[in-house]
Amino acid sequence: MVNLIPKEFKKRKDAKSLVYGVTSAYVVVIAVILLLALGLKTFNYLTRVSMDDKQAKLTTLQAQQNKDKALATEAGLIQDRLDQHQKFMSTVDWNETLGDIAANTPTVVKVNSIKAATAESGKDPTATITGETSDAKAVVLFQDKLTVSKKFSSATITGITQSGSTSDALYTFSITIVLKAN
Q1: For residue 88, what are the CA distances in angstroms to 69, 76, 81, 119?
Q2: How many other C-beta atoms lie within 10 A of the C-beta of residue 11?
Q3: Residue 181 carries which DSSP code?
Q4: Per-residue pLDDT reduced to its tens digit, 19-60
Q5: Domain locations along the chain
Q6: Across the strands, what pairs with 109?
Q7: What is the rounded average pLDDT for all residues in the chain?
Q8: Are 84 and 74 in contact (CB under 8 A)?
Q9: Domain 92-179: which CATH number of 3.40.47.10, 3.30.1330.10, 3.30.980.50, 1.10.1140.10
């Protein structure tokens, strides 16, 4: 077969073919690089979203754990208070005790508060009565009545103060009583 195409055309065609092949290869390589970069960027984004989600769940779990610890601590304190209350209430009949205090209170004495204290091991519980009166002798009478009562082991005046002049004096007092356990 006789080649009728001049060699120059053939060389140009081969050169164009080579340029087209090289250009196509560059385009494919650049497209692959861009696709890989886009894939890596998408992977990084999905990984970051997943990590943020896991971090949020971890933070929520830590907050819940701290809340549970606080609740357990509060429950322990409440249980301790209930145990102390039960121990304290089981040693003294408070209805009878308060009734006895009321029955022995002179009419001129105003009782402001009665504060109970838990008993130490091996000792009877105590209570402190605070009040006021216009007659100092009524405080001593109140202490004497409490001392002879069957509900109390002893009654001691722990403090008495006078305010005002002698004619219109107001006496503020505190008496500590030792309760007899049941």
Answers
A1: 28, 18, 10, 8
A2: 10
A3: P
A4: 888 899 999 999 999 999 999 999 999 999 999 999 999 999
A5: 1-91, 92-179
A6: 133
A7: 87
A8: no
A9: 3.30.980.50
